[in-house]
Amino acid sequence: MTELAPCPICRSSYTYELASLLVCPECGHEWNAAEEPAVDTAFVVKDSNGNTLQDGDTVVTIKNLPVKGTSQTIKAGTKVKNIRLVDSDHNIDCKIEGFGAMALKSAFVKKA
């Protein structure tokens, strides 16, 4: 079985062939396999459910998160407004009421 190219938009590896096109089932993008796909270096961040996040979104934590350097934790269900996405291990920068500026991993939040 030949390995198909990943989606140039969302980088999904679940692409499949449909006639002469390649199709991505996750984002719905279709492209011609014979043509050289345009390289899109867009930075994509997804939450724990696979929803794409954008700057300014509101997210909710899905589990209790310990805060380094304190004995406090951010409780599950805490709403975080106006997030900013960054390209690092903790890819969400935000301010949480009662805690201040934080960096969160997108795997521990869901889009509100």
> Into which percent range does the helicity of residues fall?
under 10%
Listing every helix as H and every strand as E from the N terminus to the C terminus, the arrangement reads EEEEEEEEEEEEE
**Count of helical regions:** 0
Proportion of strand residues: 25-35%
- pLDDT average, as an integer? 88
- In the predicted model, the low-confidence regions spanning at least 5 consecutive residues are none
Number of beta strands: 13
Shape: elongated
Kindly report how far apart the N and C termini lie.
40 Å
Strand order of the largest sheet: 1-2-3
Main sheet overview: 3 strands, antiparallel
Please state the structural category: mainly beta
Summed up:
The chain is mainly beta and 112 residues long. It is built from no helices and 13 strands. The chain has a 3-stranded antiparallel sheet with strand order 1-2-3, with no helix packed on it. The chain has a 3-stranded antiparallel sheet with strand order 9-6-13, with no helix packed on it.
Your description of this structure?
It contains no helices and 13 strands. The protein has 112 residues and is mainly β. Strand 7 and strand 8 (73-74) form a beta hairpin. The radius of gyration is 18 Å and the shape is elongated. It starts with 15 loop residues before the first strand and ends with a strand.
